[in-house]
Amino acid sequence: MGKMSEQREKAAQEVLSGIKAAVVARKYGVTPGTVNQWVRDYREEHGEQDHPYPQEQAEEMKRLLEVEKKYEKAVKMLGEKDLEIEILRELLKKPTPAYPKNSR
User: Fold this and answer.
1) What is the distance between the alpha carbons of residues 24 and 31, in angstroms, rounded to a whole number?
2) Tell me: the pLDDT tens digits for 79-98?
3) Cα–Cα distance for residue pair 43/64, rounded to 1 Å
4) Which residues form the Insertion element IS150 protein InsJ-like helix-turn-helix domain (predicted)?
C-alpha cells in the first residue's frame, strides 16, 4: 500500500487519540466507514505501538491516576511521620518535670 495522504493520516490520528470516527468523518466530509478504513491503513503503515486503541489509552490513564493518588498519599504519610519523629526528638530533648529524677 502506498503512502497515506497527510489529510488521511491526520484524520486517523484524531480517531486514534479518542475522537469518535463519526465526528472526524463530518469534519473531513466523508463517511465514518471511510475514516475507519483510514485508521486501519494508518495502523498497517505505522504499526500498533504508534497509537494504542482509545480503550487502552483510557485504561492507562486510569492506572496512572491511581498511581498518582497512591504516590500523593504516600508522600503525605511520609511527611506526617517526619513531623512525628521531629516532635518526639524535641520531647526527648526537654527535661521531664512530671517525673523528677529524685522521686524514688
Assistant:
1) 9
2) 999 999 999 999 888 876 66
3) 25
4) 7-47
Strands (E) across 1-104 are located at: none
Distance, in Å, from the CA atom of 63 to the CA atom of 69, rounded to the nearest integer, reads 10
CA distance 93 to 104: 22
Reported as half-sphere exposure (CB side, CA atoms, 13 A), residue 39 has a value of 22
pTM, two decimals, is: 0.47
In the numeric block, the cell 495502523 is attached to: 43
CA distance 90 to 95: 10
Q: Which three cell numbers stand for residue 62?
A: 486510569
- The grid coordinates listed for 21 are 470516527
Q: Which three cell numbers stand for residue 63?
A: 492506572
- One-letter amino acid of 38: W
> CA dist 48 to 6, 14, 20, 54, 81, Å?
19, 15, 18, 12, 45
pLDDT digits (tens, 9 = 90+) for 53-69: 667 767 888 888 999 99
